[in-house]
Amino acid sequence: MAETEQENINKKVEEIRIESRLDFYSSKIRDQYAIILSAEYITITINSTIQFLLSYFLVTLISQFVTAFTAYAFGIHTIIQFNTIDFLITAYDWKAKTIIGVFTSAPLIMIFICIRSYKLTHKNWNYSRTQRMFFLWLFYQCLTYLIGGLLVGSIFNRRLGIAVGFLLHNRIYQILMILPALALMLYLGFMYANLFFSTSKIYLNTLDDWKRKPFLVSQVIFPFIIGNIAIALFELPRIALVNKLVNISMIFLIIPIWIRASSYPALDFDQAERKFKIQWDWVLWSLLIITVIGILLKMNFHV
Question: Torsion angle of alpha carbons 118, 230, 79, 101, nearest 10°?
Fold first, then answer.
């Protein structure tokens, strides 16, 4: 009996310890992440979300028109819509060189924009920090269009995946491109994670362990979620599943940023006063550009 009572006491003590630890860690998490609901961090989310959307709409505009005009060069008429292109040609009239030419044209342009936006983000100090943040999102949107398009396109035989299928002459090899594409996105996510950490200089004097993940939530994760919801609402009533999956595939670039945040060293910047303010010039101009692009792509433009 004594042994049974002692076992019960030990169990209760252990339960109390576990409960106290859970309370401690949950309280710590609440205290750490409560800051993302503050006016300062909401400002970060608003500014970053606008830049996310502007970069996406620009990439969409360029890719749609480049693809359509390339198709026109091959004698194919098209109807450009926001989230898809209708090719006015029967399936039997497509030729291998036409497919490769049409569906690789936009990715080739995106490679150029990707390289250029990276240089403007990382090496060109003639631009403001806000402008470099825009170029960073543009860089990530191009990577998503290229590698995410290959990843999803190889599964559904769409976009760049169609061209890859014709180049490889084998559907099995085309499917096998999924793993390299996924691995490449994760690798690049780890490789360029520091670019997002460095953007904290716009708002903070230091980025330590306590601030790092809440900052990423406001600067990266919320804009990614809110931006994709806004894009989906704009696409209504016709949502293209493949395009939506390509957009969501950016998560494979973002996950490594969150993982690296756990062990990334603290960043100390200059001690100049930082102001958390909505970049109204960027917001208004971006909304104007986004509206113009959206209206243009909703007009069912014929090429």
Answer: 30
Phi, psi (degrees; rounded to nearest 5) at 89:
-155, 145
What radius of gyration, in Å, describes the C-alpha atoms of the chain? 24
Supply φ then ψ for residue 280, to 5 degrees: -60, -35
Burial (CB count within 10 angstroms: exposed 0-12, middle 13-18, buried 19+), residue 231: buried
Whether the pLDDT of residue 6 is over 60: the answer is no
The CA distance from 124 to 110, in Å, is 20
Helix (H) or strand (E) holding 85: strand 85-87
- Judge if pTM exceeds 0.90: no
For residues 134 and 299, which has the higher predicted lDDT (pLDDT)? 134
Cross-strand partners of 86:
79
Amino acid in position 153: G
Q: Which of 49-53, 93-97, 140-144 is predicted with the least confidence, judged by mean pLDDT?
A: 93-97
**Which runs of consecutive H residues, i.e. helices, occur in the chain?**
2-33, 39-73, 96-122, 129-143, 149-156, 160-168, 171-176, 178-191, 193-198, 209-216, 222-235, 241-248, 251-261, 280-298
The rounded distance, in Å, linking the Cα atoms of 174 and 167 is: 9
Which of 198, 189, 191 has the alpha carbon at shortest distance from 132?
Answer: 198
The DSSP bridge partners found for residue 301 are 80
Question: What DSSP assignment string belongs to 198-219?
Answer: HGGGGT-SEE-HHHHHHHHIII
User: Residue 218 corresponds to which tokens in the numbers above?
Assistant: 């406001």
Q: What is the rounded CA–CA span in Å between residue 123 and residue 144? A: 22
Q: What CA–CA distance (Å, rounded) separates 103 from 108?
A: 9
For residue 268, what are the β-bridge partners? 206
